């Protein structure tokens, strides 16, 4: 299928090197009219032109294909070169040179992205010119090949750009869908949680209480998963994770509560906690607690069960510093480079039922606080450190 003329023109005119090529060909050959044309069975269309003789053809103008030598080039895929048309045995009886008023002329084929004939690069002048020498024909041929390669590169670039735009649009749509879905799920989940809490308060039967406890745990896990997805969506859509910044003087108790909750859920783990935060801290306390929980869960999942996990929290040189360390295998260099990527998990470790977003969200919360989240790992221990200015 042939390309429509407006597209033909834009393909050529977006190739910045073509005007320079035409200038060099004019200087090389002495011909004062150089152009690139799209040539099909039906028509000849001007795409780009250098006109020093006021030939008065502009991009978009068309010629009857039968009145051009470019049609012969299209059919034969071979160049046409004329030095002195009125004295050339092959062309002196042709009406074309007289029709357009030229004596010297060349036309070389150029090709599209698929290697199909696209059109020609042509030159002409009312005066005769010496063209049939190796230095000149080789240069014209090289420029024609260069334009063909540029057309191919342009087409590939445009296809890649279009594919990238489609992928970005699809990704944005997915992220918006996730955000809307997370918001809509939260409302019925809140109602479910309230119902569980109400029934837990009035139920005396032990079996029913056990069932309600399991339901409550499942609802809490669903809530955490939704929160993780929402936080991930905020990060990927270019906006920071939302914070409720405030001056708090109870951050110590908030963090101790977070550690206590996980300690009760994972009684098989030995968690040593040393959090000592005095005075007011400017932060989002719930988000800082979320970072600590995510780091501690990571240590529980990946650490050596037989050795303790250490949690430390202090104020050091006007910065809040939280460290979580565990013993176990050192993190590999490959894993280290991907730790804070979303939806990534290390292999050969217990499945927490999460989405692989914990460390990613922790890093996003750190960045939103203008802080840093780093990790060091060797054979002796692995330690994550959160540091934010207070």
Structural features, described:
With 390 residues, the chain is of the alpha+beta class. It is 47% helix and 21% strand. It contains 10 helices and 13 strands. The strands form 3 sheets. It has a 6-stranded antiparallel β-sheet. β12 (372-377) and β13 (382-389) form a beta hairpin. α2 (17-29) runs antiparallel to α5 (134-202). The longest helix is centred in the middle third of the chain and has 69 residues, at 134-202. It starts with a helix and ends with a strand. The relative contact order is 0.07. Residues 1-6 have low confidence and may be disordered.
At a glance:
This protein has 390 residues and is an alpha+beta fold.
Please give the alpha-carbon distance between the first and last residues: 65 Å
What is the string of SSEs from the N terminus onward? HHEEEHEHEEHHEHEEHEEHHEE
How much strand? 15-25%
Sequence stretches where pLDDT stays below 50 over 5 or more residues? 1-6
Q: Describe the sheet with the most strands.
A: 6 strands, antiparallel
Provide the spatial order of strands within the biggest beta sheet. 3-2-1-6-5-4
Radius of gyration: 36 Å
Oligomer: single chain
Overall mean pLDDT score?
A: 85
In total, the number of strands is 13
The DSSP helix count reads 10
Identify the notable features of this structure and list them briefly.
390 residues, alpha+beta, 6-stranded antiparallel β-sheet, 5-stranded mixed β-sheet, 10 helices, elongated, disordered N terminus
